[in-house]
């Protein structure tokens, strides 16, 4: 297209005699895009089950849009265009998407809060997502943990104080057992040392 000439005149565009039609130039205004309704303040849910979290997947526009990372539930309603129905991350809504976020995966089997077996790079990626959510969204609750049999734990847990203090966010039940054994061994050693001193 050497010798091609582009002419824009009174809203018309012509290239070397070719006519591309009339182009209307309108300034952006609030008339074209009406202001959206303000979001209601986040509702604190406390501790809920994964099943209860599913009802906040965006299918009911009157309910907040929620998702969880590492058992912490965040209100992502302000980003409905991303996490709401039709959005690119809609499949994460109403779920703990920890594994999927860590792996940058959209696979159904990765839509879980189970992060066991993830490598250091995946755990770093998950940590980045968690920091992003903590800084951008309001935490509104936590997912109720399950016991070894897969049942939801209740407030009157049978853990001893030592076991409960050994549990931190993200630890597996195996590490809790190890810490309990380690604590018991330390206590036995301390009791043995005390007996030797007497």
TrEMBL record:
Coiled coil: none annotated. Residues 157-173 have a biased composition (Polar residues). Residues 48-144 form the Cytochrome b5 heme-binding domain. Its main location: membrane. Pfam families: Cyt-b5. It comes from the Eukaryota. SMART domains: Cyt-b5 (SM01117). Keywords: Cell membrane, Lipid-binding, Membrane, Steroid-binding, Transmembrane, Transmembrane helix. Residues 144-198 are annotated as: Disordered. GO terms for molecular function: steroid binding. Gene3D superfamilies: Cytochrome b5-like heme/steroid binding domain. It is found in: Cell membrane. InterPro entries: Cyt_B5-like_heme/steroid-bd, Cyt_B5-like_heme/steroid_sf, MAPR/NEUFC/NENF-like. The keyword Cell membrane applies. Residues 144-156, 174-198 have a biased composition (Basic and acidic residues). GO terms for cellular component: endoplasmic reticulum; plasma membrane. Belongs to the cytochrome b5 family. MAPR subfamily. This is Cytochrome b5 heme-binding domain-containing protein. It comes from Brassica cretica (Mustard). The lineage of its organism: Eukaryota, Viridiplantae, Streptophyta, Embryophyta, Tracheophyta.
